[in-house]
Amino acid sequence: MMRSSFPLLLTLYSALLFGCAVPHIPSRIVYEDPVNYVRLEEDEEVLPEWQPSHHTHPFTIEPEKIRAILAGMKVQEHRVAPQRWFLGESPLVPAFTDEELTLLAAQLSEALADAKYNERVTFYLSQPQTFARRIITTGGLYVHGTELHFLLGNWRIIYGIPAYGMIYDRRYPMRPTAAKGFDLLFQPAEAVIPVKSSVLDGMLANAKDELIIDLTKLDPSEPAASILRLCVTRETSCSRKSG
To answer: What is the pTM of this model?
Structure first.
C-alpha cells in the first residue's frame, strides 16, 4: 500500500514545487559580466491592442546624453518630520559613481536603441562583499513620449544571499529587497513631473523612488536637450519604428 501511494506523493510534491515557482519574466540580455547586467524585459503594463500604452521604443540617445541625465540624479536619506526638525535635511549624494555612470551610459544607450514598444530596460549593479553578501543597486527605465521614466529599485543595499530558496535581487531588479529609506531626486528639479503616491508608500520611504523627467524642460545647455529637438522635429527618429 505504501508503494502504491508513492507515485501519488511524488505527483503532489511536484505540483507544489512548480506551483511555488517564481513566474519567469521574458527578457533579453544586452550586457552581462560576473556581477552586473543590463537587459530588456517585457513590460506587463503595455497592451498590444492599446497604442497609448506603447513605449517610445526604440529610442536613439547617445551615451554622453544618458550619462548627463544619470549624473543629475541624487539620492537623499529619507527622514520623517521629527527627524528633520532635530537633524535637518540629509545631504544629497550622487546616485551613481563615475564607474557606474560609464558602464550604464553605454549599455543603457544600446538597450534603448534595441528596445521594443513593450519592453523596458533594467539594470543590476553589484559589489560582492563575501560569498553570501553583496551591495546592490538596481532599477529600470523606459521612454514614453517625451518623458523618461526611471525607477530605482535598490540603492547600495546590502543583500544577503539566502541559504535556500530563490535569489530575488538578480531576477527582479525593479523590486526592492527591503524598505528603501531614500528619496530619488533630479537636478534640474523643474524637469521633474510629480508622481502621486500612497500614504503607505510615504511611511515606507517608497514614495520618491521613481522619477518622471520631462525631456522638453531640460536646460538647452545640457547635452541631453538635443535629443528633444530631434524627437520633436523628427518623430521617426525616436518613436517606435513601423513594421
So the answer is: 0.77
